[in-house]
Design a protein that fits this description.
With 199 residues, this protein is an alpha/beta fold. 29% of the residues lie in helices and 23% in strands. The strands form 2 sheets. Strands 5-4-1-6-8-7-9 form a 7-stranded mixed sheet, sandwiched between helices. Strands 2-3 form a two-stranded antiparallel sheet.
Length: 199
């Protein structure tokens, strides 16, 4: 196990209720014979994240019941309806005191981003002050790696569906972009039309 693998935890934001999908929680959608949340965990593990925390919200009980999330830390976000920012705060909060020095954050509804892209972002980790983001043709996307030195600042500014966008904008000069457009496709599964991406 490399230093990066021990010091960086994977954090999957999987609390969304799928409002534009007729209220179908994204974590429970199927892709390649697995639930989307299981697929997301598999990607982080294949990329080298040995510790994975999963933030649940919409239909959390059903996700716990149906998804095979062995060896993951499951984090409940009772405020999930207020947006992704609350999930990011809950997830970072769950890592406090674990000895982890960075969080690699991925979204449950981006199955086009595989282990190769995640591993590139993980590989750019260089300590608690790291701010690393995958980029697609130069445009910032997910996953994003936040060194622990940034967690408090991100938690303060993460509101609504913005997540860490404001914080990253404010610290743009410190963000290291890792191009992943050659190995991943950063689409979201947000609407009925997006379901064509699921296999």
């Amino acid at each position: 196990m490399t230093d990066n693998e021990q010091q960086v935890a994977g954090l999957i934001l999987a609390a969304g209720g799928g409002r534009r999908l007729g209220g179908r929680p994204k974590a429970l959608l199927e892709h390649r014979g697995r639930l989307l949340v299981e697929h997301a965990v598999g990607v982080l593990r294949a990329a080298g994240c040995t510790r994975v925390h999963v933030v649940l919200g919409a239909s959390a009980a059903a996700v716990r019941e149906r998804a095979r999330l062995d060896d993951c830390v499951l984090v409940d976000n009772p405020e999930w309806e207020q947006g992704m920012g609350t999930s990011l705060r809950a997830g970072l909060g769950s890592l406090a005191g674990t000895g982890v020095r960075a969080a690699l954050v991925s979204l449950v509804d981006q199955p086009g981003i595989g282990a190769e892209a995640v591993a590139r972002v993980l590989g750019a980790y260089d300590g608690e002050s790291a701010l690393v983001s995958a980029a697609y043709d130069g445009v910032r996307g997910h996953p994003v790696l936040f060194g622990a030195a940034h967690w408090a600042g991100i938690a303060e500014t993460a509101t609504g569906d913005q997540g860490a966008r404001g914080y990253l904008k404010e610290h743009a000069s410190a963000v290291r972009l890792v191009e992943c457009g050659d190995v991943a496709r950063p689409y979201d599964i947000d609407t009925e039309a997006d379901l064509v991406h699921l296999e």
